[in-house]
Model the fold of this input.
Amino acid sequence: MTAFIEATSPHVMNTYGRVPIALSHGQGCHVWDVNEKLYLDALAGIAVNTLGHNHPKLVSALQEQLTQLIHTSNYYHVPHQETLAAKLVALTGMSNVFFCNSGLEANEAALKMARKYGHDKGIERAEVVVYEKAFHGRSIATLSATGNPKIQAGFAPLVEGFIRVPKDDIEALKKATEGNPNITAVFLETIQGEGGLHPMRLEYLQQVRQLCDERGWLLMIDEVQTGVGRTGKWFAHQWAGIVPDVMTLAKGLGSGVPVGALVAGPKAAHVLQPGNHGSTFGGNPLAMRACVETLSIIEEEGLLDNAAKVGAYLKNSLQQALGHVEGVTDVRGMGLMIGVELAKPCGALVGVAADSGLLISVTADSVIRLVPPLILTEAEADSIVALLTPLVKAFLAA
Ligand SMILES: *Cc1c(COP(=O)(O)O)cnc(C)c1O
Done:
């Protein structure tokens, strides 16, 4: 028997509230820790491991890529960038893609674009509409766009040029922007992920699209968490039948390999010109190969349908198991992006669930977030419900 290995990080900077386990390897929707304890992974690295762990096709493509090229720089053409960009263009009906390495980087590019778009029209101090409870990242610009005072605390002065509005209220948006000639963009999440799994109404998204068209604003949608099949369509805005001018992607795009992308439609595609923006690592061959492979495996394995079908099944089962329990205030979500909201803060459940062999997260203090790999089966969904239900009941009764 192996000795119990304690999970500690004395030399890593203490910026996370970590669960005291260390993971060692995984297979499909399961992972094992360094002491060989098994977990069902309903978090997927925060909506990142689209294909689960150790997907044979992804692994062999990456192994092959490692022997060819890992990195070259954007001094040269990178053929895998063109392959992935063409695929993203085909899936969105948009036109051009900029590659970077994370969600906040994609959003940073979007915010620069909103300013340059204004500048090109003679607007010197561009303003961008953002939302209460929004999350766009932790750089200075993206935390300024984020609608969470806890994330902003301690980092003043924040970046100027944001106007904050409540979601789902087109009149509030019109009122907040009335007569303001400096607005250049509206920036939103179709489902606010970190903010507590709050979807925007599809009708509202359509209204915002129309308003942006009327006013000449860019509609910029942060699909860093909702994109790449998570909700059962390629991109969550597609449920509303709209096409944004700018869409940002990251988390699930490379199935675990770090990557970010900004996809732009014709109104935005030519705003950034040589010298305006760049990234050393962005679009490197290894990350691009991971993304190309991830998208083609999603297609081959029908994972959009699986996310829709197993997601509906999981949400339904959770509603049946927990919907009527005193202290459970809501079970909501789309596809495999599901939130169970409790009437009290429940961050402690993350560690309790890990003890029981289930990986989850809690967001916005009181919302249990389930964002498992898109390969989840109904049997695995049953296991999530079987593991989670008694924990939630015991937690609420305590
Ligand atoms: C996670 C997330 C980000 C930030 O992504 P990072 O890769 O952590 O920088 C931005 N927007 C949304 C909606 C996210 O969920």
Observations:
- The chain has a mean pLDDT of 97.
- Residues 168 and 188 are 11 Å apart (CA to CA).
